Amino acid sequence: MLRVGCVSENLAPADLKKLRNKQRKARRKAELEKQQAAQAQEKREQHNKSRQQGDAEPDAPQQDELVPEKLARIEDPLEHAIKFLQPLQTLAAHRIETHLMAFQIYYRKQKPLLMLQSIKRAHRLDPSHSELHPCLVIFLQSLSRWKGTLDHPVAMVISQEMEPITKDRSAHQLNKQFLGNLSHLLDARFEAARMMHHLDSSTQQEAITLATSLNKDIGNITLKTCVKVLQALRNGEFGHCPAAVQDYQVRCHARFPYAQAFRPTSPLCDNNHITDSN
């Protein structure tokens, strides 16, 4: 300071003014750099803190911990299913699978008008689709069960809208006619057989025979359809039938030897080691 003071005494007033302005600018610049450094340090600390908390924003609300078991067992699965369904109904309305899935959801929620809506949309796209048939049968069966409990306007609307589709046939009549018309196709036989057992469990053996036949005169025997049949047998959709499951798996393995779904369980694989043949 003494040196600056001595220098300033020897300066002209104009030069002295310039010097003081330069000093003020230097002080302001130093203060600004100090503030910027402090702000940068604060941001770094916030960033490190957010990373430690799971990369969450400092002001963001705390999110639930992502526990797989909790996500797999949500309290209202049907409501979540509808959240996934609604975009599909807008963006994939041209795909019949959208409306078949919608029917299954609304059936579980017991929503008859939305079930009707799903059936009409699917029927408009492909009235002979094999997977539409069980929806029709289940809907007719449900209507019989709900008879007298539906509001009169609702019952009238359903009756009027379903008449062109079912032509006043019962669920049993519809299933019998469907099977008669398409018994030469495996996917149709499977759906008809499934509904046969669904409507009358005493038809188990007949239904299993229909669904599992792989005769040469039956068309559309694809890997996908055969896997569906095997899964239905295993899931109990034809009742308890372990012998039928094993027999069908063996026959499908002979037809599709490289398909993993039909490979018999090997003791060697179960034990996860190779045993000594000696």
TrEMBL record:
Spans annotated as Disordered: 1-66
Keywords: Repeat, TPR repeat
Keyword Repeat part of the UniProt annotation: yes
GO cellular component, one term: NatA complex
Pfam families hit by this protein: NatA_aux_su
InterPro entries in alphabetical order: NatA_aux_su (IPR021183)
Residue ranges with Basic residues bias: 19-28
Residues in the signal sequence: none
Biased composition (Basic and acidic residues): 41-54
Keyword Membrane: no
Protein name from the UniProt record: Uncharacterized protein
High-level lineage: Eukaryota, Metazoa, Ecdysozoa, Arthropoda, Hexapoda
